[in-house]
User: Which sequence fits this backbone?
């Protein structure tokens, strides 16, 4: 219930955050909304000696129309993404998926950057981020680099972020047909983590919780591109996945759900257009 | 006009809604100033010998006052030697821990038998220090093979209690070996049904604070009965007079907070042992692994009858998983056996039980306590029978109901049902639900082969309340010289609204307005004698006691008034509308309650009573659940839930509805989403609220409640208990709905909880069966 | 470390461990015990308070993160004259509570919900409460209380 002791540091700028991270090295973790990290610390599964609080970096919370893409600051909260008129119009998949994360209280604190950086393959947002082919803008001491979504999620709680690097912005290309979207999240209870989740934007299909990372259903996408129907393409949706079995679902059931949900997502996206 | 039967919102609420309730962890009593905080060190393996406990690293931590284990408990008298029961003695059928070979220590001594079992207690200045220090207490275990299931237990290979030589703690019930009762029956169905282990999950977990001062131990604890808790605490070697137990606001109990359990006793002991006040509030992890849990029965049933739908014979064989310690003996499954035939007039009923221990949290009472298991299974069995006979489940129920004219009715299992009208309750529910239209909609969807199919689940149930009616309940009423009244009740509300209900009874009888009536409970200094709130007993026993006390106080007042008026007692009347006493026919010359009390000894009119009932009462009802099942994913959505739950005349519809709503939700939750799981090594898999499927508002519809009031003459109020009825009726209605949605696909049963994967698997297996049968032709 | 924040309209300062959770700051340092703790996994919502007017689960916010911010708990909801907030009043009228343990968090969650969605449907309310667990009421009357408070607030022209 109680996190192990740590030293709290508050960053007043991105540069200061990077400097603090460099100073403390492996002992430090960034704190954004805290709704991925603090639950782990309360169960004592994580015990960083130093927390660098990014919460006052208002300059990292924004949703900006940049013409061909929308730039979203890493510290933008799920609530703000879910209620953004710009996103509801231009990128409804993202607005809707952010609105499905957790519950209202969680969405008032959790951030898109914190969620992505945490690297949990069962999180909802990465499905949308993958299907939208976003680019992650990452700042390190003295450098900035961009990483495409396909390379960002690398393993269980592992992303492309190197120690000390800070995710500052997520660039979301505006889809050609914004309305051709769907997000299907399968749970036993509304509040549960997705047993399986699917995000569709046009011909792109992303899956969560069927592997150690969120991933694109490439066999399905290839089939669609080759002219297959939603049903035919969806039949291949579980290819390339490595779903696990746990108390919530077996591997076989997850694979079955993947196929069903992908088909439904494709059908829904088609009817929306 | 009487206030009874009218909608009265709760007097408890303004405080709870503005300042918040005061639960154990909120207490700021002066006696608890400077209290140390307790953190338990608990078993991390399910079955092991303890070979060493090393607290040295913990003791070096800042703020650590003490680390105590069983070895420190030399100041508690040893329990009296357990008497070996005679070889032919009937199995214990009261809720009592089985001592002797099966005895349960306070802190583990040489063996741990479930993950979460308390092994040591760490006392620190602050809560935050507690978790840090507890982590550093090192316990060495010699791991033993875990008994993680009923099957494991019955194999008797790994034995939890070597002195007992078996994992079978007790057997009981009636002989189930006579198969001749099924001879010649046209339709006989046999099968297995699981009533899975669930968590009691009150929102406030267990919490206890204790202080020892001037030879007296005061214990504040989240309990359903302070007086019983006090008696249990005498095991510390104290007399009842040396102990005061206070139940502050209690955040839910559902049966799991009856009395005090071992962790709380350890906290109380630690306060006496160290001389420092001690406070303990469990975490949700502790609550989901170490608080007692519910249900956990496996049933094998056989039901048979005639082709036209008459059920002639029913056999129920129960194996009760009681967890690591048989705290309730055979009590829970003995109630299941008693209520086995439910609402049906079945000529031959056989029911027996076997209780086994497993390396899991101990099982105790949880909302319904033995009766939900009976209802869930007989309602499945009746649906099986109806399906096998090709008859409508509604028709089969009506054909076999105990008829209204047959009451009072004693079942073949010996249950003395007082009153009932089962057919009327079912008809009410069917009418409200528009049953024919629902069946038509179901037919349409089946014909179209819709992905989303409808299921209609029916349950008709009866249950036993105030099973311990002869223990009764206490009440004392004081009317003060300022015209206010105080009611002291042995009942112990933890959400039920007794303060409002009992004040209504006093207002109704004495004409003292509600806002001048205070109700007090849960403090053994003020109420030394009482039984408590569980088993849906409080209104019929506690309320009847309040009623009886009110009558006595009124009589006392009449005598005083007569004396003051210098009249005969028979000429004195109370005008309940105004609360004024006067001579009949002469209303202008009156006395107030205040004036009469002022003239009484000690300026107080008082009555102190115990009300005992002769025997239990049997509320009943029907529930109908409408479920939509997505046959591609197995996901179940509850669309509607209609109930007619009958517990006799309704004292306060507001309170009644609340009890029914809450009961329905817990019943539906067991059918749909809740299950406590352990892995084959006895490690808990559902030890957080992220993993344990507590139902939320999103999964439930609003409920449709119908009124049905069939009274009883077993108490002056004519009431039965409603607290558990909603749960007992809801579980089978929901489970039956899910299965009904899939019946046309050949699905015959889905065990609870009816998770999407279980539903999907059932559909697949039915399809496979159908394919095999088609190929065989 | 020192934290300074506004709690229920009043300034509050405390010296706490860096790891102190906001819920413990409120309950122990500020002695506002209405807000309850029901779990360790951010699941149950019993600890819900308003942070700068929005519902948050105070068990998953560090006191440090609330430094310089405004927190409102159940105790701060009624008016200065003691008049109950429409949501509190609705809970009383509709029997939206039994044991009361989930209630402070439930009330604060609904206050925030109605601020963001003043005319919710029943489904909106039920979904909006997916992070608040109650074991006593079956949610039926809690939903009624939320809808009733919404109607009352709308009716009052707020």
Assistant:
């Amino acid at each position: 219930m109680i996190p192990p002791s740590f030293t709290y540091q508050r960053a007043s700028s991105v540069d200061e955050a990077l400097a603090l991270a460099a100073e403390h090295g492996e002992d430090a973790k960034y704190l954004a909304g805290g709704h991925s990290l603090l639950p782990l610390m309360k169960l004592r599964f994580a015990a960083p000696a130093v927390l660098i609080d990014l919460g006052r970096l208002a300059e990292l919370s924004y949703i900006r129309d940049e013409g061909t893409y929308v730039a979203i600051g890493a510290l933008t909260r799920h609530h703000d993404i879910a209620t953004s008129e710009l996103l509801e119009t231009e990128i409804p998949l993202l607005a809707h998926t952010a609105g499905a994360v957790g519950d209202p209280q969680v969405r008032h604190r959790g951030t898109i950057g914190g969620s992505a950086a945490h690297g949990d393959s069962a999180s909802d947002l990465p499905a949308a981020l993958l299907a939208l082919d976003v680019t992650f803008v990452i700042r390190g001491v003295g450098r900035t680099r961009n990483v495409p979504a396909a390379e960002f999620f690398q393993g269980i709680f592992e992303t492309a972020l190197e120690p000390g690097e800070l995710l500052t912005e997520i660039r979301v290309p505006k889809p050609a047909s914004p309305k051709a979207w769907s997000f299907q999240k399968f749970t036993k209870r509304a509040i549960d983590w997705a047993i399986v989740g699917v995000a569709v934007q046009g011909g792109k299909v992303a899956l969560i919780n069927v592997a150690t990372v969120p991933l694109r259903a490439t066999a399905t996408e290839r089939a669609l591109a080759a002219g297959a129907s939603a049903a035919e393409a969806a039949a291949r949706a579980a290819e390339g996945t490595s779903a696990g079995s746990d108390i919530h679902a077996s591997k076989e059931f997850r694979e079955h759900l993947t196929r069903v949900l992908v088909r439904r997502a494709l059908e829904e996206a088609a009817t929306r257009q | 006009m009487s206030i009874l039967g009218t909608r009265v919102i709760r007097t408890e609420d303004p405080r709870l809604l503005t300042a918040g309730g005061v639960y154990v962890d909120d207490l700021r009593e002066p006696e608890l100033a400077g209290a140390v905080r307790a953190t338990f060190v608990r078993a991390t393996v399910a079955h092991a010998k303890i070979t060493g406990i090393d607290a040295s690293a913990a003791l070096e931590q800042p703020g650590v006052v003490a680390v105590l284990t069983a070895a420190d408990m030399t100041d508690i008298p040893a329990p009296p030697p357990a008497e070996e029961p005679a070889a032919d003695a009937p199995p214990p059928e009261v809720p009592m821990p089985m001592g002797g070979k099966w005895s349960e220590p306070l802190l583990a001594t040489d063996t741990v038998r479930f993950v979460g079992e308390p092994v040591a207690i760490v006392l620190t200045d602050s809560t935050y220090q507690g978790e840090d220090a507890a982590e550093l207490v090192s316990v060495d275990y010699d791991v033993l093979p875990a008994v993680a299931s009923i099957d494991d237990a019955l194999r008797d290979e790994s034995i939890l209690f070597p002195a007992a030589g078996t994992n079978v703690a007790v057997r009981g019930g009636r002989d189930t070996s006579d198969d001749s009762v099924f001879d010649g029956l046209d339709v006989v169905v046999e099968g297995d049904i699981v009533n899975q282990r669930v968590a009691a999950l009150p929102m406030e977990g267990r919490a206890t604070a204790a202080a020892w001062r001037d030879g007296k131990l005061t214990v504040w604890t989240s309990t359903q009965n302070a007086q019983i808790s006090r008696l249990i605490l005498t095991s510390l070697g104290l007399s009842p007079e040396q102990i005061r137990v206070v139940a502050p606001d209690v955040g839910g109990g559902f049966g799991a907070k009856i009395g005090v359990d071992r962790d709380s006793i350890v906290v109380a002991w630690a306060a006496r042992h160290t001389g420092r006040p001690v406070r303990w509030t469990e975490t949700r992890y502790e609550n989901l692994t170490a608080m007692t849990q519910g249900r956990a029965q496996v049933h094998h049933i056989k039901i048979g009858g005639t082709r036209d739908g008459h059920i002639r014979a029913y056999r129920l064989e129960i194996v009760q998983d009681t967890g690591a310690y048989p705290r309730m003996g055979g009590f829970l499954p003995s109630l299941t056996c008693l209520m086995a035939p439910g609402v049906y007039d079945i000529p031959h009923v056989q029911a027996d039980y076997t209780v086994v221990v497993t390396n899991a949290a101990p099982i105790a009472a949880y909302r319904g306590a033995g009766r939900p298991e009976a209802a869930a299974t007989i309602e499945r069995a009746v649906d099986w029978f109806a399906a096998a006979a090709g008859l409508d489940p509604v028709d089969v129920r009506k054909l076999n109901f105990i008829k209204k004219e047959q009451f009072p009715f004693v079942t073949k299992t010996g249950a003395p049902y007082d009153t009932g009208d089962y057919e009327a309750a079912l008809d009410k529910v069917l009418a409200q639900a528009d049953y024919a239209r629902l069946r038509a909609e179901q037919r349409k969807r089946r014909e179209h082969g819709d992905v989303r199919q409808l299921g209609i689940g029916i349950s008709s149930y009866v249950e036993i309340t105030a099973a311990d009616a002869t223990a009764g309940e206490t009440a004392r009423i004081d009317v003060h010289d300022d015209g206010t009244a105080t009611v002291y009740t042995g009942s112990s509300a933890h959400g039920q609204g007794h303060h409002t209900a009992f004040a209504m009874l006093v207002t109704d009888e004495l004409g003292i307005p509600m806002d001048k009536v205070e109700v007090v409970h849960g403090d053994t200094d003020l109420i030394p004698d009482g039984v408590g709130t569980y088993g849906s007993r409080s209104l019929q026993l506690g309320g009847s006691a309040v009623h009886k006390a009110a009558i006595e106080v009124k009589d006392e007042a009449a005598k005083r008034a007569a004396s003051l008026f210098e009249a005969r007692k028979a000429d004195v009347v109370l005008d309940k509308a105004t609360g004024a006493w006067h001579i009949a026919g002469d209303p202008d010359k009156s006395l107030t309650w205040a004036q009469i009390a002022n003239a009484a000894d000690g300026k107080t009119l008082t009555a102190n009573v115990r009300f005992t009932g002769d025997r239990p009462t049997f509320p009943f009802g029907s529930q109908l659940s409408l479920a939509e099942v997505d046959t591609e994913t197995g996901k179940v959505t509850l669309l509607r839930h209609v109930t007619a739950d009958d517990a006799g005349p309704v004292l306060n519809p507001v309170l009644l509805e609340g009890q029914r709503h809450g009961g329905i939700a817990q019943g539906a939750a067991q059918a749909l989403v809740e299950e406590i799981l352990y892995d084959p090594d006895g490690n808990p898999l559902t030890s957080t609220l992220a993993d344990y499927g507590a139902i939320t508002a999103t999964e439930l519809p609003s409920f449709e409640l119908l009124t049905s009031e069939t009274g009883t003459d077993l108490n002056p109020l004519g009431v039965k208990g409603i607290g558990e009825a909603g749960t007992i009726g809801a579980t089978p209605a929901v489970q039956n709905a899910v299965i009904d949605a899939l019946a046309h696909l050949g699905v015959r049963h889905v065990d609870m909880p009816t998770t999407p994967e279980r539903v999907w698997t059932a559909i697949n297996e039915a399809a496979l069966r159908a394919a095999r049968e088609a190929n065989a032709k | 470390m020192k934290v300074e924040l506004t709690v229920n309209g009043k300034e509050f300062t405390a010296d706490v461990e860096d790891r102190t959770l906001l819920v413990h700051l409120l309950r122990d340092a500020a002695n506002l015990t209405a807000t309850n703790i029901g779990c360790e996994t951010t699941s149950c919502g019993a600890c819900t308070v308003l942070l700068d007017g929005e519902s948050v689960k105070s068990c998953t916010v560090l006191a440090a993160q609330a430094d310089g911010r405004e927190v409102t708990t159940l105790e701060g909801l009624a008016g200065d004259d003691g008049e109950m907030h429409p949501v509190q009043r609705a809970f009383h009228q509709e029997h939206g509570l039994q044991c009361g343990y989930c209630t402070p968090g439930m009330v604060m969650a609904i206050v925030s919900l109605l601020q963001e969605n003043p005319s919710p449907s029943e489904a909106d309310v039920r979904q909006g409460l997916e992070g608040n667990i109650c074991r006593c009421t079956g949610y039926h009357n809690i939903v009624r209380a939320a809808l009733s408070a919404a109607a009352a607030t709308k009716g009052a022209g707020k």
